[in-house]
Amino acid sequence: MVSYVRSVFLRYVGICVCASFCILLLFGSLPGATDTCKCDDEQRDRDLQHEQFHKSFRVLEHGSDRKRLAIIVPFRDRFDELLQFAPHMAAFLSKQGVPFHIFVVNQNDRYRFNRASLINVGFLQVRDGYDYFAMHDVDLLPLNDNLRYEYPEHGPLHISGPEYHPKYHYAAFIGGILLLRMDHFAQLNGMSNRYWGWGLEDDEFYVRIKEAGLEVTRPKNVSTGTADTFRHVHDRVHRRRDTTKCFNQREVTRKRDRETGLSTIAYSLHSRRELTIDGVPVTVLNVDLQCDKQRTPWCECEPKVDTPSVKVAKKKST
């Protein structure tokens, strides 16, 4: 009887040992918490390797000796246009192999729009990291591949010449898209800060260029015309231009400004934001411009109020 009980007990112990061994094998084959973290780490490493590969591939494709372009976009309330601008420019410039980055200089203050001052601010923010820059309207998209955004070695390169621009056709026009070397823009003391509201800042800048002895060049071998060289996405109904003139603005802004420019720009950088639009990285600089109301009181113009005319009845002569 004792031997029988001992035999049963040994069998029971053997079965328990075998079952425990099988359970250990089963759990050992399942991924534990540490294994999961290891898989995640391996996946992140692979992603990082892919990212580094693609970055190095772009460098090799463009060449490490290529000049770097900063695209400076003076901006206010044009988000719809920006959504078109960023992917369009990325596709357009990638075909030319131009290393570039888009900087949107957004006027954050309450004053009237000052395109030239925003360009001055953008230049000061990017000058140390890039070889040349483009002052670029957000609503003007190049279509012709012969519009080469190349390094303007000998002087300003005006991409949107008067013979191709959809709207402006006078010989001295240099608005829209203009490329400059950093040292040339500094030599000109940038652009005038007097132009609050729309218009004429480019014309004053053209005089600066001519007085400095620099020659403006324009793209060659462009067979398209004013209707199909660019796409102009400006909506004149919903994006009315601020053409109001107040105080002595009309008189002052039609003269060569020898007082203001890069050396006198007054501003503060409110914030800097990094965005991605359809995969295209964009830096937004939110800027507060300062206005000297003794010199340029037209940075704020009072809205015109229509006052009803009062008719006074004439007395009848007796």
Question: What's the gist of this structure?
Answer:
This protein is an alpha/beta fold and 318 residues long. It has helices at residues 2-28, 33-62, 79-94, 115-126, 182-187, 201-211, 249-252; strands at 69-75, 100-107, 132-136, 140-142, 157-158, 177-181, 230-232, 267-277, 280-289.
Report mean pLDDT, rounded to a whole number: 84
Gyration radius (Cα, Å) is: 33 Å
Task: Report the sheet-strand fraction.
Answer: 15-25%
> Based on helices, strands and strand pairing, what is the structural class?
alpha/beta
Number of contiguous helices: 7
- Ranges where pLDDT stays below 50 over 5 or more residues in a row are 33-37, 49-61, 305-312
Task: Give your account of this protein's structure.
By secondary structure, the chain is an alpha/beta fold. 29% of the residues are buried. About 8% of the residues have low confidence. Helix content is 33%, strand content 17%.
Question: Top keywords for this entry?
Answer:
318 residues, alpha/beta, 7-stranded mixed beta sheet, two-stranded antiparallel ribbon, 7 helices, 9 strands, 33% helix, elongated
List the helices and strands and how they pair.
Elements (H helix, E strand, L loop, with lengths): L1 H27 L4 H30 L6 E7 L3 H16 L5 E8 L7 H12 L5 E5 L3 E3 L14 E2 L18 E5 H6 L13 H11 L18 E3 L16 H4 L14 E11 L2 E10 L29
Parallel strand pairs: 1-2, 1-3, 2-9
Antiparallel strand pairs: 3-6, 4-7, 5-6, 8-9
